[in-house]
Write a structure and sequence with these properties.
- By secondary structure, the chain is α/β, with parallel strands linked by helices.
- It has two domains: 137 residues, 3-Layer(aba) Sandwich (Rossmann fold); 187 residues, Dihydrodipicolinate Reductase, domain 2 (2-Layer Sandwich), CATH 3.30.360.10.
- 31% of the residues lie in helices and 24% in strands.
- It contains nine helices and 13 strands.
- It has a seven-stranded mixed beta sheet, sandwiched between helices. Strands 9-8-10-13-12-11 form a six-stranded mixed beta sheet.
- The longest helix has 17 residues.
- It is globular, with a radius of gyration of 20 Å.
Length: 339
């Protein structure tokens, strides 16, 4: 098997997970370069890496570059993404800078790998919440075609970065000690609270925060359905890792809950966990650290025609970011799109 030179740009939570996934999956890498803002040595998952300063020249000879930018993080792919492409590198970007760019495929391999055939050297990871939702809905969409989606998310603090997890843990300790709970990361205390705000308000959709707009626009591009109805409410919850979603989906054709469960059970990347009578359903604590998208509580919505409800949980740092990016590269190799 041919081996490739790989670069990971950024070693926050997502970049660190990318390095772990590359090694865990035995990605055919002859060299892994780690690029960040400054030179140093870093010990990650038991391996020491020499971190190099990022520059356009650092991408010379690199076959795949994984840009690890977390949600809302700007800079690296804007500075170096297209210059890397010009040097013959395939860029796979976890940030949101180019997701809606018409030059850039927005890809989840289980859902729309065929979009990779039109790549121009730059591919984007969708938003973490979008990824798990479209993995769960794609096999059903192929069966009965989606008409409308209404989704509410319950998003872990890991989606904000390491500082948010530290803040949640410290607030819990302070609460237990009867101390004042200080906040810096979120506009309100996150411990023992839910905050119906992820990102900031945007002019494009008045009243919607940025995360919600991504969940409206990105599935349309991924499914190739520009008129698909999507409405989202995104909520930050005091969970350390793994996002949960309540999804209500209406189809153009009738599909029963039992049919949907069978389709989901047979679909790649999905694990059906659905025995509500025994309190068996997907949980964030069970999904954390796992590759799959977990789906359960699949049931008929009696209030609307051809409509189902379901509950969906996935590790937002793993499948929602790092793993999906590496799977894109693996799929490109499998499809012969990178020689």
């Amino acid at each position: 098997m041919k081996k490739y030179t790989v670069a990971v740009v950024g070693i926050g939570m997502v970049g660190t997970e990318m390095l772990k996934v590359l090694n865990q999956r035995g990605f055919p890498a002859k060299q892994i370069k780690v690029l960040a803002t400054r030179a140093r040595k870093e010990m990650i998952a038991g391996r020491e890496y020499d971190v190099e300063p990022a520059s356009a020249e650092a991408f010379e000879g690199v076959d795949f570059a994984f840009f690890a930018g977390t949600e809302g993080s700007k800079g690296a792919s804007q500075l170096y993404g297209w210059p890397a492409v010009e040097r013959g590198c395939i860029v796979i970007d976890n940030g949101d800078d180019f997701r809606m760019d018409e030059r850039v495929p927005l890809v989840v391999p289980e859902v729309n790998a065929e979009h990779l055939r039109n790549h121009r050297g730059f591919i984007s990871n969708p938003n973490c919440s979008t990824i798990q939702m479209v993995v769960a809905l794609a096999p059903l969409h192929r069966k009965a075609r989606i008409k409308r989606i209404v989704v509410c998310t319950y998003q872990a603090v890991s989606g904000t970065g390491r500082a948010a997890g530290v803040e949640l843990e410290q607030q819990v300790k302070d609460w237990a000690a009867g101390k004042e709970m200080k906040r810096e990361v979120y506009p309100h205390r996150i411990a023992f609270n839910v905050i119906p705000q992820v990102s900031t308000l945007k002019d494009i959709f008045p009243g919607y925060y940025g995360e919600e707009i991504k969940m409206v626009r990105e599935p349309r591009k991924i499914f190739g359905e520009p008129n698909m109805g999507v409405s989202a409410t995104c909520v930050r919850v005091p969970v350390f890792n793994a996002h949960s979603e309540s999804i209500n989906v209406q189809f153009e054709k009738k599909i029963t809950a039992e049919e949907a469960k069978q389709i989901l059970a047979d679909a790649p990347g999905i694990k059906l966990v659905d025995d509500p009578g025994k309190s068996v359903y997907p949980l964030a604590i069970d999904a954390s650290g796992k590759d799959e998208v977990f789906v359960g509580r699949v049931r008929q919505d009696a209030s609307a025609e051809n409509c189902l409800d379901m509950w969906c949980v996935s590790d937002n740092i793993r499948k929602g970011a790092a793993l999906n990016a590496i799977q894109i590269a693996e799929k490109m190799i499998e499809m012969g799109l990178k020689k």
